[in-house]
Amino acid sequence: MSKLKLATAWLDGCSGCHMSFLDMDERLLELAEFVDLVYSPLVDLKDFPDQVDITLVEGAVASVDDEAKIKKIRAHTKMLIAIGDCAITGNVPSMRNPIGPEPILDRAYIENATLQPQIPCVVVPKLLKVVRPVHEFVEVDVFLPGCPPSADTFHTALTAIISGEPLDIPALTRFGA
Amino acid sequence: MSDTAEVKTLVIDGQEVSAVRGQTILEVARENDIQIPTLCHLEGLTDVGACRLCVVEIKGSNKLFPACVTSIYEGMEVSTNSERLQKHRRMILELLFTERNHICSVCVANGHCELQSLAQDLGLTHVRLPYRNPELTIDASHERFTADHNRCILCTRCVRVCAEVEGAHVWDVMGRGINSMIITDLHENWGESTCTRCGKCVQVCPTGALYDKGKIGSDHPKYPDFLPYLNLMREAR
Amino acid sequence: MTIEELDLIAKQVRAENAKFDYEVNVCMGTGCLSQNSDKLKDALAKTVEDSGKNALIRRTGCMGLCAAGPLVLVDPDEVLYQHVEEGHAQKIVDSLGGKPVAELQCELRDHFDQQVHVVLENSGQIDPERIEDYIAHDGYRALLMAVNDMTPSGVIRQITESGLRGRGGGGYPTGLKWSTVAKAHGETKYVICNGDEGDPGAFMDRSVLESDPQRVIEGMAIAAYAVGANKGYVYVRAEYPLAVSRLQACLRDARRRGLLGSNIGNTPFSFDVEVRLGAGAFVCGEETALIASIEGRRGTPRPRPPYPAVSGLWGKPTLINNVETFANIAPIIRNGGRWFAAMGSERSKGTKVFALTGKIKNTGLVEVPMGIKLREIIEKIGGGVPDGRKFKAVQTGGPSGGCLPESMLDIGVSYDALMAAGSIMGSGGMIVMDDTSCMVNVARFFVEFCMTESCGKCIPCRAGTAQMYTILTKFCTGTGTMADLELLEELCDTVKSASLCGLGQTAPNPVLSTLKYFRNEYIDHIVHKRCTAGVCNMAASTAKPAEEVLA
């Protein structure tokens, strides 16, 4: 049996979900027997490859870049798994939604800047007015909530998904877990 | 005439149970370890039937009945956990999560929140409805407590405990519909209100909307179990 | 006050009226008043005085055809004038005794001939602020008949026999409601008249209260006698100042004449009525919310049972009926239940008042026998859709009702038939729409109404209507998807099944009925980003995502 192609992606989040993923420790080796990690912030590939079997997405959609990225990912992925509360509910990044992005940019680049206070217009992607969860942009196949989902959750869920066994997510994790 | 009899028998989820006249479906179900989810109900307070999570089906009617305020009758057949009910309950939870800004990961009640636990119990892994993201205030004017309207689900437990048990009636509801809000006195700051600082509202609040300033992070379990005991002691006096 | 004394008053009034050669009735309902019919009346009075003609100028309540107001009816020739202005006074006075003023004459046989007036029998005929006028039209005869010659159960029997059902919208059998309250235990009982009319496009109750308030009071007094109550409340919206002031004048007169207060008709029966004003919350039309509001609490509904018939105002057995229901009582007692039951259809007896509005020629108030086809109301009585446009839908029952298409126009108007078609009778609002109306937008309008009028107590209604509104707005701006439509239908199901009171339980009806009959319009909006009626602005659908982005 050929290995499944696994990708992980990082939108607007703290990378905590990726840390938790790495916390699987030695169980990662076990996982590597079944999957190839073809794209991830953890590997050095710049473009999202074609025909990925499973993609784990961390983070909410908060900028034009995020939006373009998630749409591309969806187009090239068989099974999209939203991991963590940011991807599923908007979580901490969405806390700016009631006041909009302007005060946030002001706070970060004007009020607290000591040198050349200005809002960047290159390199930093343009922010969307409202931060929204991934499934409001593309279809998501599996939701794995938690902030972050624990290493055990990752392990149990991925093992079940790879082997095609039934998976009871609410028994494993919840919002904010 | 079975109608005048004090003790009734009925069927809940296929299980035959006995009850006393005047009891609600919820009371009888809980006595028999049949779990019906609730949010606005709290033992020791009057029931308002507002959260609609405890709706059940009664054989012979197409309508749904809130278990917390529906009295039992002889021969009643209740179903508490059908597919249809689960669907409605999940939708109600989705409505609650999208109504205000419930960010579990930064909430003082994370891990002790009734809304959060219900979502897990009812198998809610994501919310399909769009988040409304309203701009709401936080009232930290009280020296001991904070009210965060982002996390309020308008269950009115605070309103009832303050009026019915503490007898102060500091809390009430202002506005209507989606703009409803709990307020202290006539929308004064909590810190400048006639609050007696008893803290009962904080203990009965099912979410992190009302919390103790002394607690940090998610270190905020609540103990609403004192209510029935308190009521019992008062009656005994 | 006895029946003989009533007869005496009636005789006096008739004798006074007979002194005049002509009676000129000027409509002073809210519709005509808004077009200065009060000034018109003054002008007519002055002109008559100057001309020396022997004519009585009378203020009356609504004559029904609001679209043609201000209206003037000249008796005994029964000439109806429309769009009368102050400047026409001279012409009208000159014409008395001669030929009618042709250019003002209103010829609408179809409009009037098809109607049957029971509730509106005195509207436009009497001066609503003169109790003597009401008495001259058989007023208070029914009350005195009831308290003198009938037992309370005898009264209820007549009401039950009449087959009258609640006119507020629910259609609950009135006789059954009365007997429940009559049988309820308790020394103190209350009668409440629900005048918190709030449906968009509905003004039946307002018009009845403005045109013939005594009839409502009489109905309440008969009800109080039947159920054993001594105290009544009329709950009217504060937005109806004319109705409130006429009602209050009317209560004063009735008390002065001994028709309210202690020992009515020289019997031990005592009854009085107080007016309570609503503060403009639609939900206070729901009976438990209305009771809370009268008690001085926040107007929110509570779960039933217990029903108000058992535990209502201040925990006492309470009878709540709508204005129009009470307005039907006196004629039923006067003529007997059988007389009433002979009108209407199998399970919906009597007549119903409708407020015809929207894209229809003869906007106004009509009263028709139950069972009449919708088509007759709209095309004959209403005069059809104006400006050569095409009929599209009729909305009945207000925000709780639904929109029915052309194909459903041949159903007879009754509680059951309308329910089966996916709408409801409601309190009697009837809004006609032509092909310039977008049904998705119409559904959105009604959902918005329910959203802003939700009391906020229960979650399905409070947050559910807001989410429904969000999704419908997406459709109307061209950003909706088929997945949204699926979600909307699921949402409607929860709001309908799980809400606490009638407001929430019926809030999805406009959406469900438009989805049933006009689904293609939804598909047009979602898939083709097109609004055939040209109402919705679909600009957002073609907007680049960048426009949503911050610079």
UniProtKB/TrEMBL annotation, chain A:
Q: Name one GO molecular function term.
A: iron-sulfur cluster binding
- By its UniProt entry, which SUPFAM superfamilies does this protein fall under? HydA/Nqo6-like
Q: Would the keyword Nuclease turn up in this protein's UniProt record?
A: no
Query: Which is a Pfam family this sequence falls into?
Result: Oxidored_q6
Q: Which InterPro entries match?
A: Hydrogenase_assoc-protein, NADH_UbQ_OxRdtase-like_20kDa, NiFe_Hase_small_N_sf
Name listed for the protein in its UniProt record: NADH:ubiquinone oxidoreductase-like 20kDa subunit domain-containing protein
Could you tell me which residue ranges the NADH:ubiquinone oxidoreductase-like 20kDa subunit domain spans?
14-160
The organism named in the record is: Occallatibacter riparius
UniProtKB/TrEMBL annotation, chain B:
Tell me the protein family, please: Belongs to the complex I 75 kDa subunit family.
Q: Name one GO molecular function term.
A: 2 iron, 2 sulfur cluster binding
**UniProt key word Zinc-finger:** no
Designated name of the protein: Bidirectional hydrogenase complex protein HoxU
Q: Where in the cell is it found?
A: Membrane
SMART domains linked: NADH-G_4Fe-4S_3
Q: Which NCBIfam families match?
A: PRK07569.1
Query: Residue limits of the 4Fe-4S ferredoxin-type domain?
Result: 143-173, 186-215
- Chain ranges of the 4Fe-4S His(Cys)3-ligated-type domain: 84-123
Any one GO cellular component localisation term in the record? membrane
Q: Gene encoding this polypeptide?
A: hoxU
